[in-house]
Amino acid sequence: MGGVLTSYIFRHYIKKNDRWRITIIFLVSALVLIGLYVITRPYWGLAKLGATPAWLFLCSAITLLAFTLIYWLADVWKKSNWFNIIKPAGTDTLLCYLIPYFAYGFVKFTGFALPDFLLTGGVGLLKSFSFALLCVLITHLLHKIGFRLKI
After folding, report:
1. What are the residues whose beta carbons fall under 8 Å from the beta carbon of 43, sequence distance 6 or more?
2. What is the DSSP string of 46-72?
């Protein structure tokens, strides 16, 4: 529902060509959501699997901030070419989404396991980011040879 509301507000103000009002509304909304996160976290904690209100508020705030940043980069400042590296994830979304499941099946089948230090902390984040880029690269290569998934 947050995405629906964001889209509605965005489309409304884009028709009026009022990029500053969009930006202010999204930034203020993100600040309010961060405030709600701070207020609710002591009561329910912060847990994705628990679907706590604090998790919802924090993720919604981060999403609004990221959306606003990408809007300014791509639409206002015309820097959409900066995102070409991840373009295959947007053009062949289903294929890119499924690639990690094949990787997981391969890992389970072979019994391959990474050492613990590669799975946690900053190194774990870097490994996860690298794996995501690898999935996008594989998607790009599969698309290049004509492999596509369609619904």
Report:
1. none
2. --TTTT-HHHHHHHHHHHHHHHHHHHI
Cβ atoms 47, 88 nearer than 8 A: no
- Asked if 95 contacts 147 with a C-beta cutoff of 8 angstroms, the reply is yes
**24 and 40 part of one domain:** yes
Backbone angles phi, psi at 78, to 5 degrees: 55, 45
Contacts of 138 (CB under 8 A, 6+ apart): 99
Whether residue 151 is contained in a domain is answered as no
User: What is the pTM assigned to this prediction?
Assistant: 0.77
* Torsion of the alpha carbons at 87, 88, 94 and 98, rounded to the nearest 10: -120
Confidence check: pLDDT of 61 > 80: yes
Do 72 and 88 share a structural domain? no
